[in-house]
Amino acid sequence: MALVGNDSKNLHFDVFYALFGIIATVGDGIGTLKSCSLVCKSFHLICKEHIFSNITLFPTRSPEQPMLQLSEFESMLRETEIGRIAKRLTIRFFAWTFYDRHLPRILDQLVNIQSLDLSPQKPGIVWGEILLDTRLALQRVIQSPMLTRLSIRMVTLPISSILMHSRNLIELQLERTLPSFSNDDFSSVLIEHPDFTPPQINILRTGWDASGAAKVLLLTKLPNGLPVFESTHVSRLSVQVGRNPDDRALLTLALRTAISLNTLRCDVLYNQSLSGTFKEIHPSSRRTLHHLELLIEPAWGNVEPDILHMNELCDELKFFYVQNELISLKIEIPILTCPRNLNFTSREVWDTLDSVLGSGHFPRLQLVEIQVTLASHLISRDISKLRNKLLTTAKESFQSLKSYPLIQFNFSVKVEHPDKIKIS
User: Fold this and answer.
1) Is the distance from CB of 318 to CB of 354 less than 8 angstroms?
2) Considering the entire predicted model, what is its pTM?
3) Distance CA 299, CA 306 (A)
4) 81 class by beta-carbon count within 10 Å (0-12 exposed, 13-18 middle, 19+ buried)
5) Residues 6+ apart with CB under 8 A from 52
6) Where does the source fall among the domains of life (predicted)?
7) 398: which of 66, 263, 331, 413 lies 20 to 30 Å off by Cα?
């Protein structure tokens, strides 16, 4: 299909579609697309696809954010084509908005949602207190065969009974999500759904205060022993290990059950131990794990990064000596407060890591990245001193890794505003 115009200047529809898709992601892309849609009917049809494919719903207007009032958006959906165009939906309401009667009517018209981000503002949402019509509409979207990605934040809900019918779900992300401990009876599931097959997700990510909900989801079983949610085929796993005992329990459970893990990311607080983590990896996943990412982050109030934590990491990495297919290793270390001394920057720490990674036991390793991020609110002389020390030490260390021509080694130190540093 070519757009109407001078024959010598015709461009294929797909070219314009791709071009407007790029525009949508740059700066005020949506505003630009709105202007382009007024040029001609053909442009309007293309731009409409991009304008309404990714929808974010907010409760009120604000000049800083692209907001839609519920009543206005519901009226726009009278053009039924818009309801079919929408593929990604983000809901960032305050709690009271979940009692608004416009929301269920809107959700009922969005029939092709593939990605749902349920991320209300504080205070959090308790599922049982949401308006019944809204609950049913949300549940319809969550359990739709179209949905492949789901992100839930700050919601307390009966997670097993709701997600067990999300049969095509591929990616699940949970943060500050709590399980509501209901007396759900799963005995009727096999009667009502004799061909029941649990969802088999490929990507599981859990953040702060979400491991309890994820653990409940993975452990819940039907009376015949069949899990309501299958995690054996998780290929990308991201877990935060903090003070909550459920964090470690979830990580252990997920590592033991995943049989084809490709990417593992652990965000570990300084006061938590790494010891024994990697030995929990399923034997099958040792042959499929290609990418390991570690974020070793300080807990609030922990003034000095612990040199022993890095030594513990080196000991853990030796677990892979027996068998591994690791291709890349990324280590992130955010520093929010200035340490009392600079012992953790000593060559001893980095030389130990170098001796492990350069030992020849990682035959497929191609990339090693270490990134230290310093909070910009630290005293400037402390930042300068710490940054220079780290860069100097890195330059002098890692001689084994640098001698391998097939391994790309990167060590970087950057300064960022603390709000941009991922600290839970």
Assistant:
1) no
2) 0.83
3) 11
4) exposed
5) 82, 85, 86
6) Eukaryota
7) 263
